[in-house]
Design a protein that fits this description.
Blueprint: E1 3-10, H1 14-25, E2 30-34, H2 47-52, H3 54-73, H4 88-112, E3 116-128, E4 131-138, E5 141-151, E6 155-157, E7 170-171, H5 173-176, E8 185-189, H6 193-204, E9 208-212, H7 224-237, E10 240-242, E11 246-253, E12 260-266, E13 272-277, E14 279-282, E15 286-288, E16 321-323, H8 334-348, E17 362-364, E18 369-374, H9 377-382, E19 387-393, H10 398-403, E20 409-415, E21 421-428, H11 431-443, H12 448-453, H13 463-472
Parallel strand pairs: 1-2, 1-5, 2-3, 5-16, 7-14, 8-9, 8-14, 9-10
Antiparallel strand pairs: 3-4, 4-5, 6-15, 11-12, 12-13, 17-18, 18-21, 19-20, 20-21
Helix pairs in contact: 1-8, 3-4, 3-6
Amino acid sequence: MSKSFDVVVIGAGPGGYIAAIRAAQLGFNVACIDAWKNASGGPAPGGTCTNVGCIPSKALLQSSEYFEHAKLHFSEHGISASNVKIDVPKMIGRKDAVVKQNNDGILYLFKKNKVSFFHGQGSFVGATESGYEIKVSGATEETLLGKQVIVATGSSPRALPGVPFDEELVLSNDGALRMGAVPKRLGLIGSGVIGLEMGSVWRRLGAEVTILEALPTFLGAADEQIAKEAKKAFDKQGLKIALGVKVDEVKKTGRGAKAALTIAYTDAQGAAQTLEVDKLIVSIGRVPHTAGLNAEAVGLQLDERGAIVVDADCKTNLPGVWAVGDVVRGPMLAHKAEEEGVAVAERIAGQHGHVNFGTIPWVIYTSPEIAWVGRTEQQLKADGVRYKAGTFPFLANGRARALGDTTGMVKMLADADTDEILGVHIIGPMASELIAEAVVAMEFKASSEDIARICHAHPSLSEATKEAALAVDKRTLNF
């Protein structure tokens, strides 16, 4: 006998669990299915973000940053700390505890909002007059009937062709977060968000880190001026980043504890090079995860990338079936998935859910942090948009000086005719938090003059945003 629900959500990552909660808030009878397991085999909702992505990586970034501060920067504050050591297993244990807190928090939210949770793999069985049959394959097998279905199955790491992940020598983001000791030599393929964040963690802890990037430019998605500033900072820290690289072969050498890898690659000048590493993290992007969904049973349309095809409202080709997050088009960002999840739940309720792709912020949690929203200077030039630019360095910000963290700047781009803010780009301390003001401003179509006229607390890092807005009109007050 099938259990019937108004809405069945497949996947409990950021898009799925948020969609389920919002649908329940709107009065629907909701089920959410998720297959993630913790170490003891119990449910671990939260998807990639909570289990092997956003949350655990931030925990390790924080731990490694504290370690580096204690070693290199405490003395600047008059604090003596000798013989500073890192206990990697304890650090990993703390990361695991943070992950579990988030897993348990989601289970609590399901209970609070009366969402029925089913632990197992969710897959389509077929369509009926009343909706869709969904099979749950877990400790016990069940069949659910959903009048509406939201697919939020996320994404999986892309492997290097011919070099599968073994999570011992060749690591995905999962293995990169579970290393029990600091490798002497760490290689990374891909200088995107995961590569830079994981490279930063293990470099701070003592690994010699080399990043191989296929693209000829560094951080091509970011504003060029910000990317150059970031490259300069990472070079100074000791991250070795080689651009324009073609990986030719990855070969295992040695056995047991002495096992290592040799990477043969061609550099940007066309010269053959080799790199010996003890561990290799491959972070060359992610692919939509539809394995096990049995999409063909109901004729759910996928594109050539394996992503579920949706329209602007996240509707699939099937009536009553929606899809959100990494498994559909658009940036693979947890907060984008959340916004889509809320919007779809509201659309099912007959409301007008809304997601503005133009104001989705991007963040890289390195040190310095990098964050941006809106268009870059090069995009505006390519689009033929007349614009004005204003920048303000953290070197001239009182709070940044007090923190001892003055690397970077805030950059604001505004329409030359209307002064509407078109993009804000930040590299520096707490950029991940500062970008929120820019998102709000752009969502309300604020001008640079609006930000320039708003009183900002002193001393605060946010004053750099105000000063960048003043700089658009060439009237900074502190630089």
